[in-house]
Design brief:
single chain; alpha/beta; L-2-Hydroxyisocaproate Dehydrogenase, Chain A, domain 2; 2 domains; three-stranded antiparallel sheet; 11 helices; Malate_DH_type1
Length: about 325
């Protein structure tokens, strides 16, 4: 039975206000569509430097209850963020063929720092989900900007690495003839090249591969973004799969904020699990963000080597992000 009080005042988070910063872009548009489709979202606040009124008008015609508003240009950024519970940031430039995620650093670092500054001023309590690459550096940037305002909460700042998990699930399912919806492969480390570490040994259901196949599968998961960049031949990077992954992570955060138990997602966060200040591992999410870091679990020898191999690059990317904020005017 639903009580009268639940009808009169449903749980507030079921009316969560979610902002998408970069809503007109290749990831932002399909991501906003998926969020508009969710009963967890009460208000959808869309921001970008161009075209947002059109995207908002288009989405507002969809027969779901999320109320959509569009904001355009730097003057409207603060208004877009007022009262937001969750902020998702796909803003930034995409990769082109031949580019690494790191090549995006200078442009995207400035964009993320500017947006994090606005979040710190307008909705410092919000859950912040960063998609903008290079995630290995943009999370340290976001954290350092929040610290400048004295509002940094490490339990609420997430680097969205869900696409790596989604890809790992899809590729393993394909190789083993399994239903991809039932496969779960944790992916730890970071979100670029060799810092992406799929834990095939911890997959459910349990799967095993001969050494050469495991090595090829791991490399494919690590390079899957480049696979899409090449296939799109200069027309962009992974947008649809990234939008799906970003929505999946956002829904998990909203579910946990709503009090759902046992919500676990991997994300790149402030961490004590390794010698890196930031590291992606499975996290138990709760009403206030990270409830518990579930750590690396038991690694195979192959996976231990992958972790050891990633540490140096991750440390460099983290320092690059921190230095960027330290040197900002």
């Amino acid at each position: 039975m639903i009580s009268v009080s639940e009808i009169v005042s449903p749980p507030s988070q079921n009316n969560a206000k979610v902002a998408v910063l970069g809503a007109s872009g290749g990831i932002g548009q399909p991501l906003s569509l998926l969020l508009k489709n969710s009963p967890l979202v009460g208000e959808l606040s869309l921001f970008d430097i161009a075209h947002t009124p059109g995207v908002a008008a288009d989405l507002s015609h969809i027969e779901t209850r999320a109320h959509v508003t569009g904001y355009m240009g730097p003057d409207q950024l603060d208004a877009a963020l007022k009262g937001c519970d969750v902020v998702v940031i796909p803003a930034g430039v995409p990769r082109k063929p031949g580019m690494t995620r790191d090549d995006l650093f200078n442009t995207n670092a400035t964009i993320v720092a500017t947006l994090a500054d606005a979040v710190a001023r307008n909705c410092p309590e919000a859950m912040i989900c960063i998609i903008a690459n290079p995630v290995n550096s943009t999370i340290p940037i976001t954290s350092e900007v929040m610290k400048k305002y004295g509002v940094y909460n490490p339990n609420r700042v997430f680097g969205v690495t869900t696409l790596d998990i989604v890809r790992a699930n899809a590729f393993v399912a394909e190789l083993k003839g399994l239903d991809p919806a039932r496969v779960n492969v944790p992916v730890i480390g970071g979100h670029a090249g060799k810092t992406i570490i799929p834990l095939i040994s911890q997959a459910t259901p349990k799967v095993e591969f001969p050494a050469d196949q495991l090595s090829a599968l791991t490399a494919r998961i690590q390079d899957a973004g480049t696979e899409v960049v090449k296939a799109k031949a200069g027309a962009g990077s992974a947008t649809l799969s990234m939008a799906y992954a970003g929505a999946r992570f956002t829904f998990s955060v909203l579910d946990a904020m709503n009090g759902k138990n046992g919500v676990v997602e991997c994300a790149y966060v402030r961490s004590e699990e390794t010698e890196c200040k930031y590291f992606s591992t499975p996290l138990l999410l709760g009403k206030h963000g990270i409830e518990k870091n579930l750590g690396l679990g038991k690694l195979s020898a192959f996976e231990e080597n992958l972790v050891a191999d990633a540490i140096g690059e991750l440390k460099g990317s983290i320092k690059k992000g921190e230095d960027f904020v330290a040197n900002m005017k």
